[in-house]
Design goal:
about 75% helix; transmembrane helix; about 250 residues; transmembrane transporter activity
């Protein structure tokens, strides 16, 4: 059906040229690996994925009980205990990795369990401290902190990995865990479960919060959940739209 193009066949690579290309590729590959030595741990892709995945599984498991514990035992106490747990196990993660990959996986899963209650507890704190007309903005500002923190931590992590501080990569765990411990110490002094427990709040401020913070819904719980449902649907719609645009190669 299609006529062979002899001019195109003349451009095929000869066996000698293939050998030269193969030797060049092997040389470049060897040089690249010599300049970038292998990591300290010989973990395959499956183990690496399991390590990361179980941390997020721990977060998923801890969301609902974490929020409930905040309601029972107090948001401040639960937040400090959970964040302190995540911070301490982050600090000992390099030691756990040197012991065994399985101890490291367990350690990272506990980090996920400890970090999970933070977001539900912050929602509880917002409902008690922020007026109704400002809660959406504060919640959005809080969520923006996740992206900002990821951006800043990526920059700092790159610097720490290329340094010799505490052996390079362990310093990432030591620094992030230590910051969490410092934050827990600060929370123990400046954070209170409700405005009624704050020692320096004025009567005027307390009255303002009482007027502008509504009671939790009792009869219209279904209607009050509609904004959250719409937000979830809208997020899925935006994600699908971005995928459609990328398939059209309009953005990279």
């Amino acid at each position: 059906m299609v006529k062979p193009n002899h001019k195109e066949s003349s451009s095929l690579t000869t066996p000698n040229e293939c050998s030269e290309i193969r030797n060049k590729i092997n040389y470049n590959t060897t040089e690249r690996f010599e300049n970038h030595p292998a990591g300290q741990f010989n973990w395959d892709a499956e183990i690496q994925g399991l390590t990361i995945g179980l941390q997020f599984i721990g977060m998923i498991i801890g969301y609902i009980p974490g929020g409930r514990l905040g309601e029972i035992y107090g948001a401040k106490r639960t937040m400090i205990c959970s964040l302190l747990t995540a911070s301490l196990f982050t600090i000992i993660s390099p030691v756990a990795a040197r012991i065994s990959v399985y101890t490291f996986i367990i350690c990272r899963m506990i980090v996920g369990l400890g970090a999970a209650p933070i977001f539900p507890i912050l929602v509880i704190m917002i409902s008690k401290w922020i007026p109704d007309t400002e809660q959406s903005f504060v919640a959005s500002f809080m969520l923006a902190g996740y992206g900002t923190g990821a951006f800043v931590s990526s920059l700092v992590t790159g610097i720490l990995l290329s340094s010799e501080l505490f052996g390079g990569w362990p310093s990432v765990f030591y620094l992030s865990g230590s910051l969490g411990v410092v934050f827990c110490i600060l929370c123990s002094f400046v954070v209170y479960d409700s405005p009624y427990l704050h020692p320096s709040i004025t009567l005027k401020e307390l009255e303002y919060l009482e007027i502008n913070i509504a009671e939790p819904p009792k009869e219209n719980g279904l209607l009050s959940s509609v904004p959250n449902l719409l937000r979830a649907v809208f997020a899925c719609f935006i994600g699908a739209m971005i995928d459609w645009v990328r398939r059209r190669k309009e953005i990279q």
